[in-house]
Amino acid sequence: MERLKVLVVDDSAVYRKIVASAVDATELAITENTASSGAIAIERMENTKYDVVLLDVFMPEMDGIEVLTEIKRRWRNVPVIMISSTGGKNAATTLKALEIGAIDFIMKPLDADYEKNMEILKNHLKVIFAQLKIKSYQTNVVVEEKRQVQPVAKKTSISGVDLILIASSTGGPVALNTVFEGLQGLKKPLLV
After folding, report:
1. Which helix or strand (DSSP H or E) is residue 67 part of?
2. What is the pTM of this model?
């Protein structure tokens, strides 16, 4: 099975090494390259195709949100996973990154033990990479099926329902926008 090619972006040399080691240890992905700044990351992306970008939030000059915005503008379909030492404490930054198009947000483990930090990241990344590989496989199957079947436009209508409840997790803000576009004109109460 071909591994995902990953770009690791972090201004900390120590964390670049930890994250790169964790990526490689998943056996689902390989660190194709690293970057110590947002500008270098953009330059690397101009010259190489990556399957995933792991992006630190807080960096000097060009922070992770600015880099994410540029990546999503120029390479819309490249999945970006944000990594931060303060992700859980800064909900606004997390939400902004997810709204821009990040697929997940990982907290940097802050244990003094290098191996333990690497293991924590590896376990989290392994799950995300497996999901990306499954999604890639499903997308390829759907594309093949769409070639054989012509899509039919459907009108959205829901009857016999008093209330609609929608729940979402990581990546939800982007997915919800797509769902809401399909529900325009619907005259039912909606809880999100």
Report:
1. helix 64-74
2. 0.71
Q: Pick from 134, 78, 129: which is nearest to 106 by CA? A: 129
Paired tokens of 46: 């101009």
Task: Fill in the amino acid letter for 9.
Answer: V
* Strands 104-107 and 164-165, sheet pairing: unpaired
Q: Which of 43-57, 96-110, 173-187 is most confident?
A: 43-57
Tell me the pLDDT tens digit for each residue of 82-96. Answer: 998 764 556 788 888
pLDDT surpassing 70 at residue 155: no
For residue 6, with 0-12 CB atoms within 10 Å meaning exposed, 13-18 middle and 19 or more buried, which class applies? buried
Task: Note the pLDDT tens digit of each residue in 41-63.
Answer: 999 999 999 999 999 998 888 99
CA–CA separation, 86 vs 94, rounded Å?
9
3-state helix, strand, coil in the chain (%, to 5): 45, 15, 35
Q: How far apart are CA 153 and CA 112, in angstroms?
A: 56
Cα separation of 117 and 108, whole Å? 8
| Secondary structure string (H, E, C) spanning 96-121 | HHHHHCCCEEEECCCCCCHHHHHHHH
Whole-number Cα distances in Å, 103 to 160, 170, 178: 34, 7, 15
